[in-house]
Amino acid sequence: MKTRGFKTAIMVVLTMCLVFSLTACGENTKDYAGTWIGNGSSTLILNSDMTCKYTYSKWKHAEEGIWRIEDNKVVVADCLDYEIYAEIGESESSLLFQSDSSTWNDELFIKSN
């Protein structure tokens, strides 16, 4: 009987450790929601509802899409014909967006609000 109680206590402790470690590792989307100004004449607006808008100074319209945090990256999809992503680092005020597409030029975005 004592062994069963001990095993249960160990399982509870391990479960709590797992829950707290997953919570601590998760990035808060509110940290990245806002307007981002790119050094290549573009603007990226990441909304708190996980939608986004991408504009480029030479375009007459904005492209709309969605964004998410995945594998320690901010990923923007559906605005372009390909995804762009930025590694999450220590700074929440700048993001270097990259893509696997050869048509995208890496661009540094600075958070304006």
Description:
The chain is an alpha+beta fold. The chain has a single domain, classed as Lipocalin (Beta Barrel), CATH 2.40.128. The chain is built from 1 helix and 8 strands; from the N terminus they run H-E-E-E-E-E-E-E-E. The chain has an 8-stranded antiparallel barrel with strand order 1-2-3-4-5-6-7-8. A hairpin with a 6-residue loop joins strand 3 (51-56) and strand 4. The termini are far apart.
Write the topology of this structure.
Layout (H helix, E strand, L loop, with lengths): L1 H24 L8 E5 L3 E5 L4 E6 L6 E8 L2 E5 L6 E4 L6 E5 L8 E5 L2
Antiparallel strand pairs: 1-2, 1-8, 2-3, 3-4, 4-5, 5-6, 6-7, 7-8
CATH architecture: Beta Barrel
Number of alpha- plus pi-helical segments? 1
Report Rg.
20 Å
The rough form would be described as elongated
- From the 3D structure, determine the CATH topology: Lipocalin
Fraction of helical residues: 10-25%
Distance from first to last alpha carbon: 59 Å
Q: Kindly state the mean pLDDT as a whole number?
A: 84
Which CATH class? Mainly Beta
Compute the number of structural domains. Answer: 1
- Strand residue content: 35-45%
Structural class: alpha+beta
Q: Quick one: how many beta strands? A: 8
Largest sheet: 8 strands, antiparallel, barrel
